[in-house]
Amino acid sequence: MPNLLAKGRLARWSGVAGASLVTLTTMAGTVLAAAAEHAPNAAAGGEHASGGLPQLNPANFPTQIFWLALTFGVLYYLMSKKALPRVAEVLEARQERISRDLAKAAQLKEQAEAILAQVEKSLAGARSEAQTLISQASADIEANNHARQSTLNADIAERLKTAEASIAAAKDEALANIRTASTEIVRDITGRLAGVEVEPAQADAAVAAVLEERRG
């Protein structure tokens, strides 16, 4: 494709050069024809004509036209065979370099898009894995807390039960001590006030009856 473009440009420039050569030749012929029309006046001028510009002398016209055509022919050859092909080669090389750069840019873009897609996929997988780990950790923490709470509740219940048993035992012991002390006090008071010796069983029964009445 670049070769076709370069050849097309070379063909256009060759045509332009040829047209320019034809135009310049035509313009030169017109100028020379105009000079030829004034040639009789120049010849009539004698010495004045001979001392004028040589390029306006009709005797020099064929030579001038020959060298003009030769010069433009050489210029046309140099332009079409030397200069323009070199310019076309430069343009072709530039076009090829641009095409390679565009192809490389497209390839790099595709690679970047593939890498971006892979990164996004990795990030999605990492987010999913993180969510799974967070959910699992939350479930483990919740289960651990529940187990610890259950253990704590059982321990508290056991301690309360033990404390209640200790309190009940202490209460019973205290009541037994009070009952024994009360029995002794009753026997002592009865002996001192009434002079009657009360049996321990009778005194204990009386104290028990009073404590039962108070408890009820």
UniProtKB/TrEMBL annotation:
<keyword id="KW-1133">Transmembrane helix</keyword>
<comment type="similarity">
    <text>Belongs to the ATPase B chain family.</text>
</comment>
<keyword id="KW-0732">Signal</keyword>
<keyword id="KW-0138">CF(0)</keyword>
<feature type="signal peptide">
    <location>
        <begin position="1"/>
        <end position="28"/>
    </location>
</feature>
<dbReference type="InterPro" id="IPR002146">
    <property type="entry name" value="ATP_synth_b/b'su_bac/chlpt"/>
</dbReference>
<keyword id="KW-0066">ATP synthesis</keyword>
<keyword id="KW-0375">Hydrogen ion transport</keyword>
<keyword id="KW-0175">Coiled coil</keyword>
<keyword id="KW-0812">Transmembrane</keyword>
<comment type="function">
    <text>F(1)F(0) ATP synthase produces ATP from ADP in the presence of a proton or sodium gradient. F-type ATPases consist of two structural domains, F(1) containing the extramembraneous catalytic core and F(0) containing the membrane proton channel, linked together by a central stalk and a peripheral stalk. During catalysis, ATP synthesis in the catalytic domain of F(1) is coupled via a rotary mechanism of the central stalk subunits to proton translocation.</text>
</comment>
<keyword id="KW-1003">Cell membrane</keyword>
<protein>
    <recommendedName>
        <fullName>ATP synthase subunit b</fullName>
    </recommendedName>
</protein>
<dbReference type="Pfam" id="PF00430">
    <property type="entry name" value="ATP-synt_B"/>
</dbReference>
<keyword id="KW-0406">Ion transport</keyword>
<dbReference type="InterPro" id="IPR050059">
    <property type="entry name" value="ATP_synthase_B_chain"/>
</dbReference>
<comment type="function">
    <text>Component of the F(0) channel, it forms part of the peripheral stalk, linking F(1) to F(0). The b'-subunit is a diverged and duplicated form of b found in plants and photosynthetic bacteria.</text>
</comment>
<keyword id="KW-0472">Membrane</keyword>
<keyword id="KW-0813">Transport</keyword>
<feature type="coiled-coil region">
    <location>
        <begin position="91"/>
        <end position="173"/>
    </location>
</feature>
<feature type="transmembrane region" description="Helical">
    <location>
        <begin position="59"/>
        <end position="78"/>
    </location>
</feature>
<comment type="subunit">
    <text>F-type ATPases have 2 components, F(1) - the catalytic core - and F(0) - the membrane proton channel. F(1) has five subunits: alpha(3), beta(3), gamma(1), delta(1), epsilon(1). F(0) has three main subunits: a(1), b(2) and c(10-14). The alpha and beta chains form an alternating ring which encloses part of the gamma chain. F(1) is attached to F(0) by a central stalk formed by the gamma and epsilon chains, while a peripheral stalk is formed by the delta and b chains.</text>
</comment>
